[in-house]
Specification:
Blueprint lengths: L1 H14 L3 H17 L6 H12 L5 H17 L3 H17 L3 H18 L2 H74 L1
Length: 193
Amino acid sequence: SSIFYADKAIEVCTREKIYRNAMVSYQNKFTSTMYLGQYNKLAPIIAEMEKLKQFLKNPSSKIKIALNKGFLNYYKGQYAEANKYGLQSLALSRSNEDFDYMIKSYQLLSKAATGIGNYEIADSYDFKVDSIHQMQVTDKLRGEVQGLEKKYETQKKESEILKLNAENKQKSTLNNMLIGSAIGLILFSLLGY
């Protein structure tokens, strides 16, 4: 099972002091445990992630931990606490301009708001998720269009170069024929004397 392999990876990564990979393995274990509905096993995983955080400088670790705490509280029915951690992860995500974690933070906040019964706020969070998704799709399309435009311009220049090379070859052939004809005429006229 994925939890077994996550535990093995955590063991090796912690022993070898590869803390970033250990954090990823803890996250995978957390996610698998959550999907299996074993919510009582989540708090110890978060505690281990908190211990690892001291070795990591990347902000995503703090965001993951805040999100995990938020989802744990959500599944326990503690929506106000889930909201608190959702806001914390959102603030960290915004400061790092991490749109994927912003989406996850807004999704947590939406669930917490729904749990509290504040459907209007939940809808506003869902709208923000959709807006970020739309922005990501637009950015991706813009990048693809720019790539296609660049490819078109490159192909256009290559075809112009091929055309100029063909014209130069044709001119060179014509010049060689003219030079050959001129030399032939000169030789013919010299022989005629």
